[in-house]
């Protein structure tokens, strides 16, 4: 055969960050013709990553609409990809993780009997409504996928329990660790001057994100009240809360924290700004999935503002702790890390189980070996 034709699909900022190093790797493989399709499920935040990594899509569905629904996103992705797949007829479609773009992209490929590779496969909570809709997006994509690129051995084990053949699973590490090789700089100067004004050596800076659907309402309210109490109790603490643009989240955050000293409410940062802030902060509090992988790579303890996680490896390693959204619980565990240096050291020095910066190369090699274009034995991430 000639060059293997691959179409890589993503539509949100987290997907783009994690697919960017893989796109770069595929571009460097002479046996692969890789085309990039973005759905723009999240337009502005996606474009920031495309610019950062100098990625120019071959196809842009530009589906984002005001107040978009999950049904609308799914329909627009399916319709947009149908025409692209008919024209391009790729050998393989690559999707990432657990977004609605991911599931719809895999489904569109399945309808045309195109092989699907699932990057970051096998993560599970086994609660279909937590996280919602990500858990089912990931499981349904896994049911369609032909190749499963699991970031850890635990993710592989989840897939094996579901009956996925062992020869279709490749343990690669997580591509986000690859991406951070390009984004984190020790001498970095922030574009946001408010971030440049903070003394990261003398202050204990807590980086916060909280926006998940399951935390809307009471959960976000509890998180904000906990942050207020943490700052009031600890004069050396400053909080940088990167507030999601969704009014449900933003209105609550500004109502409770808008006038609290040493609390900085900022719009979401671009990827490079966020990674470098993470590198300088004292600890991270988040309900995000990706930060649970990124922060341990930088030696930052993470308090996860959720009751369950599809990323249990870092919990087992000791660098991440599940604290839920109960106000008193959040304050208790934050206080421990702020005041007890021994507990902080245990978490900050735990080994990150998510990667060694070589995941993209493993994925590219696994694809070429699967299609019998390259020979050799695949070396999985341990």
TrEMBL record:
Gene3D superfamilies found in the cross-reference section: Glycogen Phosphorylase B
Keywords assigned by UniProt, alphabetized: Isomerase
Recorded superkingdom: Bacteria
The keyword Isomerase is assigned to this record: yes
UDP-N-acetylglucosamine 2-epimerase domain boundaries: 24-367
InterPro entries, per database record: UDP_GlcNAc_Epimerase_2_dom, WecB-like
This enzyme's EC code(s): 5.1.3.14
Any single Pfam family the record assigns to this protein: Epimerase_2
Gene Ontology terms, MF aspect: UDP-N-acetylglucosamine 2-epimerase activity
Family: Belongs to the UDP-N-acetylglucosamine 2-epimerase family.
Listed name of the protein: UDP-N-acetylglucosamine 2-epimerase (non-hydrolyzing)
Gene this protein is translated from: wecB
């Amino acid at each position: 055969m000639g060059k293997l034709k691959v179409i890589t699909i993503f539509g949100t900022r987290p997907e783009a960050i994690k697919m960017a190093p893989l796109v770069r790797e595929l571009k460097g493989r002479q046996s692969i013709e890789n085309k990039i399709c973005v759905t723009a499920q999240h337009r502005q935040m996606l474009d920031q990553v495309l610019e950062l990594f100098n990625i120019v899509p071959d196809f842009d569905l530009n589906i984002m609409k005001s107040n978009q629904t999950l049904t609308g996103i799914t329909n627009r992705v399916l319709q947009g990809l149908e025409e692209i797949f008919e024209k391009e007829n790729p050998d393989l479609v690559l999707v990432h993780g657990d977004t609605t773009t991911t599931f719809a992209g895999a489904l569109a490929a399945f309808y045309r009997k195109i092989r699907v590779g699932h990057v970051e496969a096998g993560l599970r909570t086994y609660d279909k409504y937590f996280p919602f809709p990500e858990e089912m997006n990931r499981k349904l994509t896994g049911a369609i996928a032909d190749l499963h690129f699991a970031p850890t051995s635990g993710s592989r084990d989840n897939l094996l329990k579901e009956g996925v053949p062992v020869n279709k699973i490749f343990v690669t590490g997580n591509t986000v660790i690859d991406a951070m090789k390009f984004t984190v700089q020790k001498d970095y100067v922030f574009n946001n001057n408010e971030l440049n004004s903070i003394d990261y050596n003398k202050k204990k800076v807590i980086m916060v994100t909280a926006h998940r659907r399951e935390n809307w309402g009471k959960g976000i309210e509890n998180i904000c009240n906990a942050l207020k109490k943490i700052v009031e109790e600890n004069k050396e603490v400053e909080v940088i809360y990167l507030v999601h643009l969704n009014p449900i989240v933003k209105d609550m955050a500004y109502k409770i924290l808008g006038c609290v000293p040493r609390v900085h409410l900022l719009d979401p940062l671009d990827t490079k700004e966020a990674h470098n802030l993470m590198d300088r902060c004292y600890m991270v509090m988040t309900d995000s999935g990706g930060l649970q992988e990124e922060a341990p790579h930088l030696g930052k303890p993470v308090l996860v503002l959720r009751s369950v996680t599809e990323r249990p490896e870092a919990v087992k390693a000791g660098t991440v702790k599940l604290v839920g959204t109960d106000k008193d619980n959040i304050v208790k565990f934050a206080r421990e890390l702020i005041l007890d240096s021994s507990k902080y050291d245990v978490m900050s020095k735990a080994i990150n189980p998510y990667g060694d910066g070589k995941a993209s190369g493993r994925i590219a090699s696994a694809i070429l070996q699967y299609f019998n274009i390259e020979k050799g034995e695949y070396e999985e991430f341990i």
